Amino acid sequence: MSLNNEMIQEILVAKFGDQVSQFATSYGMLSFESPKEINLKVLQFLYDEPSLGFTFLTDICAVNYPDQKGAELVVVYHLHNLKENVRLRFSVSTSLENTDVYTATKLFESANWMERETYDFFGINFVGHPNLKRILNVDEMDYFPLRKEFPLEDQTRIDKDDEMFGRG
Amino acid sequence: MEHNHITLPEGSIEKTTTTLNIGPTHPATHGVFQNIMEVDGERIVSSDQTVGYIHRAFEKLAERRPLYQITPITDRLNYCSSPINNMGWHITCEKFLNIETPKRVDYLRVIIMELARISDHLICNSIVGVDTGAYTGFLYVMQYRELIYEIYEEICGSRLTTNIGRIGGFERNFTNTAFTKLEKFLNEYPKVLKEFEGLFTRNRIFMERTQGTGGISAERAMNYGFTGPNLRAAGVDYDVRVHQPYSSYQDFNFTVPVGTTGDNYDRFLVRNAEMWESISIIRQAYEKVQAFKGTDAEVYHADVPEYYLPKKEDVYTKMEALIWHFKIIMGEIDLPKGQIYSPVEGGNGELGFYLISDGGRTPFRLHFRRPCFIYYQAYPELIKGGMLSDAVVTMSSLNLIAGELDA
């Protein structure tokens, strides 16, 4: 019998109880959340449980919601069960003060650079990562550029010297 | 007396390996890649990669642009097959906004995407040839990539960074010249591809150079997040076009070629086989497009005034068109709230767009799943213990595109 979103939800709730929450389906993809302390347990269960078999890590990225106090940073995992062809989205949230999240590199080799990228842009500290340093930005950078506290330049600003831009 | 001999670092006399720096710009890397390798003679003991030399902060840029302004950004990811990226982005937006595209648009898109796949694989495979010492194939097929670029040019006006199509369809209908050029390509290219295969596939030197180098098992490839031809060469028949059909790919008959060993030779064969499949898909799509007659043959976009720019003459003569034109150009259309992850089969793997909207005019967050960023991590494992000259071939046969890798 083919796997569907309701079955995944049932199996997860049976295993983790109320620690997994916020189940929702949007555009056909199931998404849910868990506390960041058990992110590895959830990923491992999704990987090992024969009826789930989410053995392919599609993507890891982070999102910054400045208005969610205490849960400003959200790490999003996209997983794929290639046999049943089912995808799901799993996320954990963390505060700006303590950005520790356990690394998934032991489970997926591919998580290595994805986590480095996430660290590079959002400053998520992946605990246990073998080589957590910046990947796309310069090593000397001392901020995390994709956080919302760094707005893009105001397009209406008028204090620019036109001569510097070849328009003088 | 002042001593003027060089003082070597501690332990460097005892060291039996050599540290070798290749890149960031080097004729053998075909892009901006740096590798610091530890070599013992010509064998690679270990290597360390540096990436990010052409990082342009696309994800941050996208946070202030309305949807239609993000298309030119996607051009610059995998620039060997930018139409696939453009279409992938339009398809993401259409799914997100629940826009249904007419069948004719889907088929036209399939033609463009498969042309782009051919040009992508063509470059990759001929570069593998160059790196094994055979320049002829590369020079020869460039002429036929030119034919593909001429088709793009006829459709959208540009060649490399195409910015082709709009949300909902195309900016204009395909002209007869475009179809004539397509027919010319379909007539001439198969013979050339056959000749190209004749040059390489059973070539003793080429086989010796590529077989058994840069191989990876299916399990490791999956664990490393391989997708596209590189994963299929390892024996996993995962193709987004089949697993999650978009743009009416379910209407076409094609096979998904797979390899067994995942080495450079298999990757080469898989790409060649995929080009044959692409030719067949284009033929089928062209037939389907030709079946539209009369007013049906005039359809080239969906009816979505909120996102699809009205015709210029309407803007000058009709009030409503003027309003929509203004609202689209000024980016005054609010998006619905929500999140979507939408993948397409890019030239080198699963290209995914993860779009989060908070109901504003621009994406709240946009993340690109760039296939070669993810599988390039496996490079040290692929080349370890092999010869330096094989590492060069492995790099080109992975189809690494710096623009996509660094986003």
Structure, briefly:
Chain A is of the alpha/beta class. Chain A is 20% helix and 27% strand. Chain A is built from three helices and seven strands; from the N terminus they run αββαββββαβ.
Describe this structure in words.
- The complex is a heterodimer of chains A (168) and B (407).
- Chain A has 168 residues and is an alpha/beta fold.
- Chain A has one domain (5-151): 2-Layer Sandwich (Beta Polymerase, domain 2), CATH 3.30.460.
- In chain A, 20% of the residues lie in helices and 27% in strands.
- Chain A contains three helices and seven strands, in the order H-E-E-H-E-E-E-E-H-E.
- Chain A has helices at residues 5-16, 39-48, 111-122, and strands at residues 21-26, 29-34, 56-64, 73-81, 86-94, 100-102, 125-127.
- Chain A has a five-stranded mixed beta sheet. In chain A, strands 6-7 form a two-stranded parallel ribbon.
- In chain A, strand 1 and strand 2 (29-34) form a beta hairpin.
- Chain A is elongated.
- The mean pLDDT of chain A is 91.
- With 407 residues, chain B is mainly alpha-helical.
- Chain B has a single domain (58-406), classed as Cytochrome-c3 Hydrogenase, chain B (Orthogonal Bundle), CATH 1.10.645.10.
- Helices cover 48% and strands 11% of the residues of chain B.
- Chain B has 17 helices and six strands.
- Chain B has helices at 58-61, 67-75, 82-96, 103-131, 136-156, 176-200, 204-210, 218-223, 228-233, 240-243, 264-290, 312-317, 319-329, 371-375, 379-383, 388-397, 402-406, and strands at 18-22, 34-40, 43-50, 337-346, 349-358, 365-369.
- In chain B, strand 2 (34-40) and strand 3 (43-50) form a beta hairpin.
- In chain B, helix 4 runs antiparallel to helix 16.
- The termini of chain B are far apart.
- The A-B interface holds A 26-27, 29, 31, 55-59, 61, 63-64, 76, 78, 82, 85, 87, 89, 108-110, 112-114, 117, 121, 134-137, 145-146, 150, 152, 155 and B 51-52, 55, 57, 59-61, 63-64, 95-96, 220, 222-225, 236, 238, 243-244, 338-343, 350, 352, 354, 356, 364-365, 367, 369, 373-378, 406-407.
